[in-house]
Amino acid sequence: MAKEIEDFSRAFYPFLHEDDIKISFLRSPQELIEELSFSLMEKARESADVKSRFFEENKDAILAASLQMAKAFHRGNKLLVCGNGGSATDAQHIAVEFMHPITVGRKALPAICLTNDMAMVTAVANDVGFADVFARQIIALGREGDILLGISTSGNSENLIHAFETARRMKLITISYCGGDGGRAADMHARGLVDFNLTVPTSSIHRVQETHVALYHIMWDMVHAFLQQRSLVEEGEAK
Question: Is the model's pLDDT at 154 over the cut of 60?
């Protein structure tokens, strides 16, 4: 992984590396601007390519996860979302999208971001440990049939793994957004411990995060589309 990141940096920013300093001194400002312009367009093309390949390879799983979310909302359940760092801000964004839809005619759906309450997060981190900051909230807020969406660019965040384990015991629907090889979250999915794992297979954290943003916007749209089809969301519910 480290070598891939180093190669990526050298390919797009050769003038930042020590062995290229002499070459960079020889560049004119215009040459530098031209290199950065090339780098900019290469990143844009790479971002589009990563997203296109991800959605093509995962479209069935994305639709299946969206349908399960729609069924949960239709039953009156709620969405719990969590992540760390940049993924924490994505979790906040997701909760806002569902609670405050910007598209006319789309209903507000119950969603809670577990990173928002800093008093709770720091209390659990201080008294119990950071690995349980999400699990403790799931125990208090989660109910059978709710949805837990955990976001981790590596798939290895310990507090998310604990969150998924807790959610599994409580019979929540579990969805993980990951990057790279999916890490421990992908392994949990392979063992049937996470219902849906959506992994963006690239070592670039930026490309992973960009794809996650597109993913949750698209899934938001798919959930609402399914909710408009009562025959689908009610299928198998009446027993």
Answer: yes
